[in-house]
Give the backbone structure.
Amino acid sequence: MASISITAPSSAEEGEGVSASVRVTNTLDYHASFKATISAVPDFYPDYVIGSIDQIILSGDSVTRNVSFTMPNCKVTVFVSVERWSVDHWVYDSSDSEVVSLEVPATYHLSVHVPPWAAGGFIDPGSGDYPADSTVKLTAHPLSGYQFTSWGGDASGTSTTYNLYMDSDKYVEAYFEEVPVEPEPVEGTIIRKELEYSGSGDGIVPVANVPQGVSAKLHVWGRNDMTISQGMGIYWFVADPEGFVAEEYTDWGGAIGAGQDHEFISSGQFDLNKVGKYTVWIELLMGSQDNPEIVDRYIGDLCTVSAPDYKGSIARKELEYDETRGAIPVY
């Protein structure tokens, strides 16, 4: 039969290359053909072949094979099984094994990192070496104005604390972001509306008994009700008693200070030449000129236009005849 000798280290660290030597010796008093299979058998994973012998070994001679494997995160057994050719078939001859234990370091290294794109806080404790098989409680601390979003790397979840088991070297990232600031609501008020019409002075809208045929201008005041400066604009249209547009107007007053008001005035004049009720649609706009918000609206009467009240009297009547004139009646 064959004598088997296995030379291998008693232990190795995870990821380390392990070299082993297997020697098979023919102890029979005659030459024989031997076939040996050399396998690595990890505790947690399927075994696999790392070498073999298949040849005739003279009586008393030996054959040596050098093999290697990478140490996983568990114990590995180097197992050798030998078969011998007997007459007309292979038969089991012998086997042997050698255990390579996993070398557990006294400490593992923890690296913590906050990437620049997710800055806004820090991790406690920081990078360093920690006892093997210990648990490190990580805490994410956001700075003022920031909030923690999640862990990355060898940690996960959205809780600001994470218990990390140190069974190997670890790398952990923490991600932060700015706390969203709710914008102040855009607020403003239409505080005054006046109608200026020629020959009759100004009137507070709605104005009654405006003479037919006069020309008019609309004045509208808007107030910024916010605590900060804000852009302000206006839009309106005036409809005559028949529903036709007498004036359409828009303007942007620029940035108006907190609590301040701004007057908007028709760019031209429009004619009040129809008897009846004129109406107006006014929208006060605030915010960005490109995308303003309607903060106040007035839809209602602008003025009532009245027909002229003509007054007069016949002051005198005369009859002229034969170059003679006399007050009527003439006798």
